[in-house]
Each structure stands twice: as C-alpha cells, then as structure tokens.
Design a protein that fits this description.
Elements: H1 4-26, E1 29-30, E2 46-47, H2 52-75, H3 81-99, H4 109-127, E3 137-141, H5 143-148, E4 163-167, H6 169-181, H7 185-204, E5 211-214, E6 218-222, H8 241-254, E7 260-264, H9 268-277, E8 281-282, E9 295-296
Parallel strand pairs: 3-4, 3-7, 4-6, 7-8
Antiparallel strand pairs: 1-2, 5-6, 8-9
Helix pairs in contact: 1-2, 1-4, 2-3, 3-4, 6-7
C-alpha cells in the first residue's frame, strides 16, 4: 500500500508521459505572420488543429489531470499564499498548453513540452511542503465494516504490522442510529457492541490523540470535526453520508500525505467513489483472526 504522496507522484509521471506524446508527436505550432502592416504585441505562435486521434488523447489527459489537480488543491488548502500562487500558476500553464485554445509564447512544441513538464515538477514541490509523519499506517473504517467485525483487536492487514483505526464523525453518528432504529435486532446488537468498545477505548485515554487497542500493534483514535464540504472535492455531495465520509478521509490524508491512509469498506458504491477520488481501500478483515484482509489497491 503506497502513500498519497507516492500515488500523486506516480500520477504526475503518467500524465507527463501522455503530455509528451500529445505535444511532441501530435501538436503543431504555426509560425507568426510576417507583414510590415501588422504589429503583434501578444503571443505570436498559434496552435494548429489537432487530429481526431490527438483530440481523444487530449480529452484523456484533461480528465486525468483534473482528478489529480482537484485532490492536490484540497490537500494544499492550508499552505501559504506563496504556495497557492505557485500551484495556480503551474496549473494555468498546464491547462493552456494542453487545451491549446489560445496563441502561445512558446516558439516550438519542444519548448511547450519542457514548460509543461516543469510545471508538474513545481506542483509536486508544493505537495512536498505539506507536513506529515512518515511511515504511519492509518485505516479509516466505514460503519458497515465495524458492524461486520466489532472485534477490533483481531483486525489484521497484510501490508502492515501495526496500524491505527480512525473513527470519523459520520461513522459514529451512523452507529448511534443503527443501535436504536435498525429493524434487524442483530445489527442493533452489533452496533451497540461497537459503541461499547469505542467508549471503553475512550476511558483508557484521550481518544482524539490515540489509545492502544492491542499493545504495539493496534491503536485507535477519533476525529471530532466534520469536514467542510465547500472545501473538499467538487463532486462530493454534502447530503450524502458516503461523500461526507470520503471528505473526512481526505482531511485525514491532508495531515498524513507521507503515511498510508486506507479506507476499510465492503460497500461497492463507496469503493467505486474511493477509486474515483484516488483513495486506496481494502475489504474489511474477516472475523477469523487467522485470516488476513486482502488489499484492493487504488488503480
């Protein structure tokens, strides 16, 4: 399981490879017009029309880039104004040279390629400014995974020897609702069991700072603050519990970009949204202690 910082770096390299093909193999710059009666004060070179094949590649690049860009924009939200300006300038340049809707100061497509690739390096340098502990493994469970296996001290994952289980506000609220109103008595009892375990953990110490579940192996901590849905990924819906859960996970990632942060869920719809958001996930650990949860890596 890789960290978000590593995942973003890999995404940047894939995007740079596609952009190199687009600009070097498919794009063409028309030379400036020469006329004694025309004075050009702005960019003088103009992009030629792309072939249909090139337009398809351009569309793919823009779709992939916007997912990469949107996640980074959320992650760097708390950085300095200078960092925000550096990100914005690099983003604007990449979009201009990939969309090719305007004239350009670049005189050759090789120059356009070099400027675009350098802009990605500047974005990655902004990501590098984020504070994060290194080498920590955090697993953020959805409600169903906790209900399916309330024995937290039995949880195991194949990619790490020790980890911290993180409880988010929406999950705690859903557990309270399940223990009271779910029509299935077994589900109510399991939700109540999880809540009792969490309360017991809270009695051991400050749960928001982290308390041991199993010595030297499993810790648990809670997040108290709801995510600001106006400052998260633009496609997340504030009225949808899965989307609010994802927004909470992204806030956890913001503080842990160089640690592994993994969603634990068996919910196929939530897994689908996690893939789209570029967030790793895995199946819940089975109840049997000897069975190891299988990783489903984010593509």
């Amino acid at each position: 399981m890789i960290t978000i910082a590593e995942s973003l770096a890999a995404d940047a390299e894939r995007l740079k490879a596609d952009i190199r093909v687009l600009l070097e193999q498919h794009s063409r710059l028309n030379p400036p017009l020469h006329s004694e009666s025309i004075v050009i004060l702005g960019p003088s070179h103009f992009w030629a029309d792309l072939s249909v094949e090139a337009q398809r590649l351009q569309t793919k690049i823009l779709n992939d880039y916007k997912k990469y860009r949107d996640l980074i924009r959320v992650l760097i939200r708390g950085l300095t104004d200078e960092s925000q300006r550096a990100f914005k300038e690099a983003n604007d340049l990449i979009l201009r040279l990939v969309e090719q809707d305007y004239a350009t100061w670049c005189e050759t497509k090789q120059e356009a390629t070099e400027q675009t690739l350098a802009a990605f390096d500047r974005i990655q340098s902004v990501v590098d400014r984020l504070y994060s502990p290194d080498g920590v493994s955090l697993v953020v469970s959805d409600t169903n995974a906790l209900v399916a296996n309330p024995n937290l001290d039995h949880w195991r994952f194949g990619w790490c020897d020790s980890f911290t289980i993180v409880f988010t506000p929406i999950v705690l609220a859903e557990l309270d609702e399940l223990k009271i109103s779910h029509k299935n008595a077994s589900v109510r009892e399991k939700a109540e069991s999880v809540i009792r375990r969490i309360k017991e953990l809270a009695r051991r110490g400050e749960l928001d700072c982290g308390v041991p579940v199993l010595r030297n192996t499993i810790m648990a901590r809670s997040v108290a603050v709801e995510p600001n849905m106006s400052e998260t990924l633009p496609w997340l819906d504030a009225t949808n519990n899965d989307d609010r859960f994802l927004a909470s996970v992204i806030e956890i990632i913001r503080e842990n970009v160089r640690s592994t942060v993994t969603i634990v869920t068996g919910d196929v719809n939530l897994q689908n949204k996690a893939r789209f958001a570029r967030i790793p996930y895995c199946e819940p650990p089975p109840i049997l202690e000897t069975t190891i949860a299988q990783e489903v890596p984010c593509p």
